[in-house]
Amino acid sequence: MACIMNRVEQVSGAIEQDIRQCCWLPGDKLPGQLELMRRFEASRTCLREAITLLEAKGLVTSRHGSGCYVNNLFESQFASAFLGSTSGVELDSAALQLSVMEMRLVLESEAAKYVCERATYEQLARIDAEYKAMKTRKGSPLQRAKADLKFHMLIAQSSHNLIVVSLSQLLYTQFFNAIYGTLARTLSAPEEWVDHVSEQHEAIYHAIMCRDAVAAQRAASKHIQHSMSLLEGQG
Hints:
This protein has helices at residues 2-20, 33-40, 44-56, 75-83, 94-118, 121-136, 141-157, 162-174, 176-187, 191-209, 213-234, and strands spanning 60-63, 67-70. By secondary structure, it is mainly α. A two-stranded antiparallel ribbon has the order 1-2.
């Protein structure tokens, strides 16, 4: 019996390690049972018990008839700590937008650095494709905001840091209105201000493609500080 439990813990630990290394991201569906059984050389019973251990740790959630999904480790804490503290605050207020940008400053500068050090060639190819699509995309401010965030989210997802991925995902979804408000302010600023944003995206992109961690971190930080200076000027 002890031998069986050791094998269950080994399989559970291997899946957990893959989750923490961002092989699967928060919200992703794990591969099906047969694929996981082959991958970890485990029996069906062993795999089911391993998944049960992961559920007990809060790492995954099984949905009947749908599959097993990776949880965002900070979702419940984020909702109570952050959303509760902003109740009654206008989502289009410069004060809230500035607070969100301060958080983005920390996350995105670190994510850009980690991408240069850790991203796979496939991840770099996705960032390359999304940057080129974003650069040529026209449309409403809302469409451009979504394209902008998709580019930044791809960078976070390629950082191979579960904390950066989880917090970025929550920040971009829970505070999308505040982030969109910041972009709307930017787009209504003088034309040269908007041009600077495009130049900053290009600097981030080129640094990442060259795997220059120092330049990528600096470019990402400059990009966020640029928007923060606009908010501070309008505060």
